[in-house]
């Protein structure tokens, strides 16, 4: 099966991102996609320069295409977004055609959820990206910082979610993911109802003995997705007193207003995670 393939593949572009040189953000190393067929099978696809410039304007995330004349090769050893032994590479002979009449119920998202209690075993493991689900409890404002890996400043935002056991988990978004995250919309909706979110394409890290997730260009989120796992999570914590807080940068560290302190003490589910975020 490894080699050139002239078969027509009918697939949905579930996820699309670009990977740039960490030392030179103007240098594109490759464009990546997660493709899903009508039966729910998924594969990682990559396009290398200069072909990425040719194909990128032709492809839109969420659309369905007929793709032919691709190269089938073994999956990468690291940073795999889906569990598949093979992956797809675009070549100069690849053809792509948008599907006008999409079959009903064509799958649009793919994920493989990892329980919170298994994340510590995945710290610094780079073979697969990590997908998780949780109820949003806190969203920080965007901060601008300089990291060790980059010579320029980058945006950072923290989103805290919890599982059915009220265990908090911080997901740190970087760059465009930090600035494009719909914090205000989720915060407003979260005052009246649970906001369930699936994060895909993250990696686990550990700092000061606490495990969290980090999301760069490969990370995407699905808010209140119509999937069984979201329905189950919402039902399991439906009776909890859960209110989403949008935390501005001025209160992310150090002093918290008395009104917020009182609220946290009366809501045990989010108390520990807010203490961790604010440092008190």
TrEMBL record:
One of its GO terms (molecular function) is DNA binding. Coiled coil: none annotated. Pfam families: DUF223, REPA_OB_2. Transmembrane segments: none annotated. Residues 9-97 form the Replication protein A 70 kDa DNA-binding subunit B/D first OB fold domain. InterPro entries: NA-bd_OB-fold (IPR012340), REPA_OB_2 (IPR031657), RFA1B/D_OB_1st (IPR003871). Keywords: DNA-binding. The keyword DNA-binding applies. Residues 128-207 form the Replication protein A OB domain. This is Replication protein A DNA-binding subunit B. It comes from Zea mays (Maize).
């Amino acid at each position: 099966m490894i080699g050139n393939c002239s078969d027509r593949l009918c697939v949905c572009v579930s996820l699309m991102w670009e990977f740039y040189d960490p030392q030179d953000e103007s240098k594109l190393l490759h464009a990546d996609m997660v493709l899903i067929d009508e039966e729910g099978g998924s594969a990682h696809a990559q396009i290398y320069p200069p072909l990425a410039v040719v194909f990128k304007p032709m492809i839109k995330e969420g659309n369905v295409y007929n793709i032919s004349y691709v190269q089938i090769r073994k999956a990468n050893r690291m940073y795999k977004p889906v569990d598949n032994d093979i992956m797809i590479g675009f070549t100069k002979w690849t053809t792509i055609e948008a599907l006008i009449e999409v079959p009903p119920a064509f799958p649009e998202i793919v994920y493989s959820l990892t329980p919170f209690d298994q994340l510590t075993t995945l710290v610094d493991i780079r073979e697969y990206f990590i997908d998780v689900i949780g109820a949003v409890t806190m969203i920080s404002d965007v901060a601008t910082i300089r990291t060790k890996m980059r010579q320029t400043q980058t945006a950072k935002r923290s989103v805290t979610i919890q599982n059915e056991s009220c265990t908090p988990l911080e997901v740190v978004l970087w760059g465009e993911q930090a600035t494009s995250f719909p914090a205000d919309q989720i915060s407003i909706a979260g005052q009246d109802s649970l906001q369930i979110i699936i994060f895909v394409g993250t990696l686990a890290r550990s700092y000061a003995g606490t495990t969290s997730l980090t999301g760069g260009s490969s990370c995407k989120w699905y808010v209140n997705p119509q999937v069984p796992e979201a329905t189950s999570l919402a039902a399991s914590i439906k009776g909890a007193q859960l209110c989403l807080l949008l935390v501005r940068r001025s209160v992310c560290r150090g002093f918290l207003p008395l009104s917020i302190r009182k609220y946290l003490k009366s809501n045990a589910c989010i108390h520990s995670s807010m203490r961790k975020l604010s440092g008190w």
